[in-house]
Amino acid sequence: MEKHRKVLNQMANNTYTCLIVGENTAERTAKYTQKYQETPRTLYRKEDRKAIKESFIKARETWLKVRDASLARFDDFVTDEIKKLHTMKDKDFFSKLAGGKDCSIDAKTGNIITFLSENYKADFIMPIEDGFILKDGKKVSSAKKGNIDWGAMHMANTKKYEIAWDCVMGTKSPVTDEERNIYENMKGLKPYLASFGDRETYIKSSCSFVAYAVLTKEDEWLEMDETQNQYTWTAEFYDRFIVPLSDDTLLTLSLCTLRDENELKS
Q: Which end of the chain is more exposed for a tag (fewer CB within 10 A), N or C?
């Protein structure tokens, strides 16, 4: 399946991939697995509650515009949420927001506070053993950029996606056995393909090397935002995060796991 859909499926299962750029990965990722801090921090200020509610509405409206076609089944739910937010008083919204997990209202300031660490990203961050394919065919979790077979990792096997777009979107009729087989498997997904907007975006999104998050050499954590166009993140990932690096830069592909708290309680 397409790379960006793998990313979405990972998130649904409380896991996601992270590309770590540079050395000392264990030391640098340690702070991102610390869930709580000793003193509370302000999550939302009382005086900002109107603006916060508007930002929640905008985020959901944006999601409806850029969401993956496979998530269309949630449109009615999100639309209903938007309607409820519009009719909800700011103070009621703020109280409901404070009722979320790991949150409470500070009795003195009226702000929403939390002990949840601002750096927390996952409970476990572990290297993926076969994350990269090397030029000699071996599969490893970490490697220098120059030793990785990017021909196998990025924009590989584009032919079947080109055929899928051309045959399903009607720019050509399937002729060969391969084309007919791909068409039969994909013909019911025309709305999904159309959601990419154009052929190039579909192919790049399907075949590009991508991870949900990146820890840069400067220790900046970047990730695919749920309101960002996921196709853009995927299509631009290689040029944005891989191309500028020198060949001697160490890269590690890791799996970030969020602990299932319901499972822990059972």
A: C
